[in-house]
Design a protein that fits this description.
- It is built from eight helices and no strands.
- It is mainly α and 276 residues long.
- The chain has a single domain, classed as Vanadium-containing Chloroperoxidase, domain 1 (Up-down Bundle), CATH 1.20.144.
Length: 276
């Protein structure tokens, strides 16, 4: 790698990390002022994408809508392409989700979570953190564009693509599940309740967006500090959705897992190889 390319790579790595830290710390500090007045992760199950060609291989903003359509086709057909190796992720995920669903009511009915001040602070924190995950790919893309750093611009585009993919999947699952929020009916968390509508609790949209963005950033920049920051802040989003009584634990588990898998899929499907 030439000294110029190495400098760009180092700069883009720190741009990714700084974007996450800047927005997370800025949002949390702003909320604090207003209120006062990994063990290695396994690879995601791989959907079977259509073969690439030279045109599809280019990561551009103009090509993103088409890429999202291909992503959605691959995501929704991925169950028919599951391999034995994927069960190492899917079986524990399914079992853990089932266990959490049996305890969701007890957890959300706990007096420790029925604290209005705690709930409000947690909701503010989750909104601020997820705002950082939405903004980070934009900042990374902008810095990459300014410095002519293709790695950074790719990270920004793929981060945005992964978040859009997550939102589409999350909205479809909400319409299907129609689960009541923890604040309804003494946190019984009933599914298939038409009264829930598009405001269904399952899965957590904040968690899906945060983890899809984090997965792309952490996959593009594999340094331990970047990974710790990205996944640590994403975990913060998931936890604060429960503490804010906006979602059940099973909602955030599924949202986090699906967001991470979608982010990893987008990265593996579209990224180019860069030396770091």
């Amino acid at each position: 790698m030439t000294p110029h390319l190495h400098a760009l790579s180092v700069r883009s790595r720190w741009t990714a990390l700084a974007a996450l830290l800047l927005f997370a710390s800025g949002q949390i500090c702003a909320m604090a002022q207003s209120s006062s007045s990994d063990a290695a992760l396994p690879d995601a199950p791989q959907a079977q994408p259509a073969p690439k060609n030279a045109a599809q291989d280019q990561v551009t903003i103009l090509g993103t809508p088409r890429a999202i359509l291909h992503d959605q086709a691959a995501i929704w057909t991925s169950p028919i392409h599951i391999h034995d190796r994927d069960l190492a992720v899917l079986v524990p995920l399914g079992l853990t989700t089932a266990v959490l669903m049996t305890t969701d009511h007890q957890v959300m009915s706990s007096s420790k979570l029925q604290d209005t001040s705690l709930n409000n602070h947690a909701v503010d924190a989750s909104n601020g953190l997820v705002g950082g995950f939405v903004a980070a790919p934009v900042i990374i893309w902008g810095m990459g564009h300014i410095h002519q750093d293709d790695h950074a611009t790719e990270t920004g585009i793929l981060g945005g693509e992964a978040m859009v993919d997550s939102i589409v999947v999350e909205q479809a699952l909400k319409i299907i599940s129609m689960r009541e929020r923890p604040t309804v009916d003494n946190a019984r968390g009933k599914f298939f309740q038409t009264s829930a509508g598009i405001d269904s609790s399952f899965p957590s949209s904040h968690s899906m967006v945060a983890w899809s963005s984090a997965a792309v950033i952490a996959s593009e920049y594999k340094g331990p500090l970047t990974q710790l920051t990205a996944y640590g802040l994403a975990t913060g989003v998931s936890l604060t959705r429960v503490l804010g009584r906006q979602h059940f634990p099973s909602d955030v588990l599924v949202g986090s897992a699906f967001g991470w898998m979608i982010g990893r899929y987008v990265f593996h499907r579209h990224q180019h190889s860069y030396d770091e």
